[in-house]
Specification:
The structure is a single chain. With 259 residues, this protein is of the alpha/beta class. It has a single domain (2-128, 185-258), classed as Alpha/Beta hydrolase fold, catalytic domain (Rossmann fold), CATH 3.40.50. It is built from 8 helices and 10 strands. The strands form 2 sheets. Strands 1-2-4-3-5-6-9-10 form an 8-stranded mixed beta sheet, sandwiched between helices. It has a two-stranded antiparallel ribbon with strand order 7-8. Helix 2 packs across helix 3, helix 3 crosses helix 6 and helix 4 packs across helix 6 (180-195).
Length: 259
């Protein structure tokens, strides 16, 4: 079922719900993604007796807002909270990459899922970003915050399955840029989350060690400080639920999330 919910500022958020089980699972995507990239995950967990809701953050997919832009990271946090308000007690949250950073910042701000599973969370960046672009992003965030710059993401880093990268590159609903303000808000959110000593909910971090986009050592260090469960696959890249062997990943994540 496809529908729209309102975020706190009235921005329309597109959500798709699969299944009618007794346990609610909310799924938050990564940068530039949309609900269609998680249909196979939703169907797999729905078959295990869940009601799975995949949301599109503002600026993504069919949701409202400027593409890959926020004035404040708190707008993303408000989006997750708005959709979480439709979940039943005992709901669980699965969040990938940028969605993981948003989810953790939301927990800092009072969100309380029964469990939070993170997939290669955006706590650090492994891919090389040119120094001039980093400097330009900080300056432009103050002067022209909505200026869009290429996000430097190489689709080949998503999965060892070349079809995944090819489909991503050709997908018209995948936006290939981020704005200057998005960049500075992202780095500020990373600093907040990595400095937070208190995580009052069960956490698990699922890692593709060969991820060339986010930084697995940073994710491991965070998990150790937070007392989180960790499960890693040595050869997998960034999108572990779209990797060769994704069936195992979806099953293992589901085992922890739904237990």
């Amino acid at each position: 079922m496809s529908t729209f919910l309102d975020s706190a500022d009235g921005t329309k958020l597109h959500v798709v719900t699969t299944g009618d089980g007794d346990t609610d699972v909310l799924l938050a995507h990564g940068l530039a993604e949309h609900v269609g990239r998680y249909d196979h995950v939703a169907r797999a967990w729905a078959a295990r007796g869940c009601r799975v809701t995949v949301m599109e953050l503002r600026g993504h997919g069919r949701s409202g807002g400027r593409r890959s832009h926020v004035d404040s990271w708190g707008q993303y946090v408000a989006d997750v909270k708005a959709v979480a308000g439709s979940m039943r007690p005992g709901w669980r949250l699965f969040a990938h990459s940028m969605g993981g950073l948003v989810a953790l910042d939301a927990v800092r701000d009072g969100l309380r899922p029964a469990k939070l599973a993170l997939s290669n969370p955006l706590l650090g960046v492994r891919m090389r970003v040119p120094a001039w672009k980093t400097t330009a992003g900080r300056v432009l965030s103050r002067l022209i915050p909505s200026m869009a710059l290429a996000n430097e993401l190489d689709p080949a880093g998503l999965s060892r399955d070349p079809a995944i990268g090819q489909a991503y590159a050709a997908d018209p609903d995948v936006y290939k840029k981020v704005t200057a303000r998005w960049y500075t808000e992202m780095t500020a959110a990373q600093a907040r989350v990595l400095a937070e000593p208190n995580w009052p909910i069960p956490l698990a971090v699922f890692i593709g060690e060969a991820d060339p986009i986010t930084d697995p050592p940073t994710a491991r260090a965070f998990a150790a400080r937070a007392g989180a469960h960790v499960h890693a696959w040595a050869d997998m890249r960034h999108e572990i639920v779209n990797e060769i062997g994704k069936e195992e990943v979806i099953s293992v994540v589901g085992d922890w999330l739904l237990s």
